[in-house]
């Protein structure tokens, strides 16, 4: 039995663009139920990827900002 290969996750912009295309295709309603389910499954995967990328970006921003919203590198009070 062949092993599943892990596909590299697309970057945020690519994933979002693909997700938008999937939504448009699903909204048209011109595809079979089976194909709709495949597209929906792909959409869920892309959504999770986008959410993860956004969470990572938010964490980076929080690390760079202090409690007052001033970048730590420019905080001269300490």
Automatic annotation (TrEMBL):
Belongs to the XseB family. Bidirectionally degrades single-stranded DNA into large acid-insoluble oligonucleotides, which are then degraded further into small acid-soluble oligonucleotides. GO terms for molecular function: exodeoxyribonuclease VII activity. PANTHER family: EXODEOXYRIBONUCLEASE 7 SMALL SUBUNIT. InterPro entries: Exonuc_VII_S, Exonuc_VII_ssu_sf. It holds the Pfam family Exonuc_VII_S. Keywords: Cytoplasm, Exonuclease, Hydrolase, Nuclease. The lineage of its organism: Bacteria, Pseudomonadati, Pseudomonadota, Gammaproteobacteria, Candidatus Tenderiales. GO terms for biological process: DNA catabolic process. The keyword Lipid biosynthesis does not apply. SUPFAM superfamilies: XseB-like. Its EC number is 3.1.11.6. Heterooligomer composed of large and small subunits. It comes from Candidatus Tenderia electrophaga. It is an enzyme of class 3 (hydrolase). One of its GO terms (cellular component) is exodeoxyribonuclease VII complex. It catalyses: Exonucleolytic cleavage in either 5'- to 3'- or 3'- to 5'-direction to yield nucleoside 5'-phosphates. This is Exodeoxyribonuclease 7 small subunit. It is found in: Cytoplasm.
